[in-house]
TrEMBL record:
Localization (cell): Cell membrane
InterPro entries, A to Z: BP-dependent_transpt_permease, MetI-like, MetI-like_sf
Entry-linked PANTHER family: ABC TRANSPORTER PERMEASE PROTEIN, OLIGOPEPTIDE TRANSPORT SYSTEM PERMEASE PROTEIN APPC
Source lineage: Bacteria, Pseudomonadati, Pseudomonadota, Alphaproteobacteria, Hyphomicrobiales
Organism this protein belongs to: Bosea lupini
Pfam families: BPD_transp_1
Membrane topology: Multi-pass membrane protein
Name of the protein in question: Peptide/nickel transport system permease protein
Keywords: Cell membrane, Membrane, Transmembrane, Transmembrane helix, Transport
Length: 284
């Protein structure tokens, strides 16, 4: 096979990949703008108007109304703030806790034995079930939902961080730092952690997408955020009884949720390939 068709195919693949990444970035930027601007401008559409209940999409309700007459367009845009807050909050909590556990476990052998067995125990429980149990125990609220979703994600991040630290621990500059008498905290914070941040940043994108989806699941089954604060999960939960006559109540927030989760995952994959070029070479 000649090199020219392979080069052309590689060029088309790169162009398609660039378009997909650009589209994903635009979706994330659009949802972020909605999260920042929609609540101050449009409010949360919490006022009840039974005279306009279950109106189909059209003017003046672009996405229709729910069974209580609330505007689905406003609630969908306002729900973006809650969903993004959960995604970013869970990412931060997971990186701090999981990163610290993995950092210590990967460098201190005695701690590795204890901490990783605890992480293995948590990973043996299905993530959604563990999040549902924790959310039920802790009660509703934004912070408690973040904690409930973070706990199942921490072991995965800890194991990732541990693997990175185990490889970095064998580097010559670590041996040199030990030889000159550097303390363990100094080695961890100055030499190992900065070289492990790239893997954590990539992991944060996947955790964020997973957390947004988990929050929608918890809210949809009634153990997540209070219905007073719109999120995509509880907006869809309010329309499940009326799906046959008013499918738009679930369709529009579900579409926003799907697009955002896919876009974040695409950007995470692109970031991972940029950090590790061997992945893109392997795919080609």
């Amino acid at each position: 096979m000649s090199a020219q068709p392979q080069t052309a195919r590689a060029g088309r693949s790169l162009k398609a990949s660039t378009v997909v990444i650009g589209l994903s970035f635009a979706i994330v930027a659009m949802v972020t703008a909605c999260a920042l601007l929609a609540p101050p401008i449009l409010g949360y559409s919490s006022d009840l108007n039974m005279g306009e209940a279950l109106q189909p999409p059209g003017s003046p309700h672009w996405f229709g109304t729910d069974n209580l007459g609330r505007d689905i367009f406003v609630r969908t845009l306002s729900g973006a703030r809650t969903s993004l807050m959960v995604g970013l909050g869970v990412s931060l909590l997971t990186l701090l806790a999981g990163g610290l556990i993995g950092l210590v476990a990967g460098y201190v052998r005695l701690a590795d034995t204890v901490l990783m067995r605890i992480m293995d125990g948590l990973m043996a429980i299905p993530g959604v079930l563990l999040a549902v149990a924790l959310a039920s125990l802790l009660g509703g609220g934004l912070l408690t939902v973040m904690i409930a979703i973070s706990v199942p994600e921490i072991p995965r991040t800890a194991r990732l961080m541990r693997g990175v630290v185990l490889s970095l621990r064998e580097m010559l500059y670590i041996d040199a730092a030990i030889a000159i008498g550097s303390s363990t905290p100094r080695i961890l914070l100055r030499h190992i952690l900065p070289n492990a941040t790239e893997a954590l940043v990539v992991q944060a994108t996947f955790v964020c997408a997973s957390a947004i989806l988990a929050e929608a699941i918890l809210s949809f089954i009634g153990v997540g955020i209070s219905p007073d604060l719109p999120s995509w999960g509880n907006v869809m939960a309010g329309g499940r009884q009326f799906f046959r006559v008013a499918p738009w109540i679930i369709a529009f927030p579900g579409l926003f949720l799907s697009l955002l989760v896919i876009a974040i995952n695409v950007l995470g994959d692109a970031l991972r390939e940029r950090i590790d070029p061997r992945l893109s070479g392997r795919r080609a």
